Amino acid sequence: MYVHIGDTVSVPIESIITMVHAKGGKSHKSPIHHYESLEYIAMVPEEQIKTYVVTDDCIYGSGISIKTLMRRIDEFYSIIKR
């Protein structure tokens, strides 16, 4: 299953390693600095990034809040448990 993370981008749920709230932006020290070797894709201007989505092969700067992304994933899992 895929989750829509903004713009025209959807990623497989199973490829998501972590999602990080972008409090101060990419320039501030955050847990995503451990993934510097991955390609970085900003889907919105830096000041509009709300969440960094780290996948197996890249980091996405998403304008969608982490709360909304988690709700989308939770909704998917609640549907398949039925």
Overview of this protein structure:
With 82 residues, the protein is an alpha+beta fold. The protein contains one helix and six strands. It has one helix at residues 66-80; strands at residues 2-6, 9-12, 16-21, 39-42, 51-55, 58-62. A four-stranded mixed β-sheet has the order 3-5-6-4, with no helix packed on it. A hairpin with a 2-residue loop joins strand 1 and strand 2 (9-12). The two termini are 16 Å apart. The model has no long low-confidence stretch (mean pLDDT 88).
| Topology order in helix (H) and strand (E) letters | EEEEEEH
Strand content: 35-45%
The number of helical segments is 1
The stretches of 5 or more residues where confidence is low (pLDDT under 50) are none
Mean pLDDT: 88
- Terminal CA distance: 16 Å
Helix residue percentage: 10-25%
Specify the overall morphology: globular
Q: What topology, given as strand order, has the largest sheet?
A: 3-5-6-4
Q: What's the story with the biggest beta sheet?
A: 4 strands, mixed
**Helix/strand structural class:** alpha+beta
Radius of gyration: 13 Å
| DSSP E strands, number | 6
Protein name: DUF370 domain-containing protein
What does the secondary structure layout of this molecule look like, with pairings?
Blueprint (H helix, E strand, L loop, with lengths): L1 E5 L2 E4 L3 E6 L17 E4 L8 E5 L2 E5 L3 H15 L2
Question: Concise description?
Answer:
This protein is of the alpha+beta class. Helices cover about 20% and strands about 35% of the residues. The chain contains 1 helix and 6 strands.
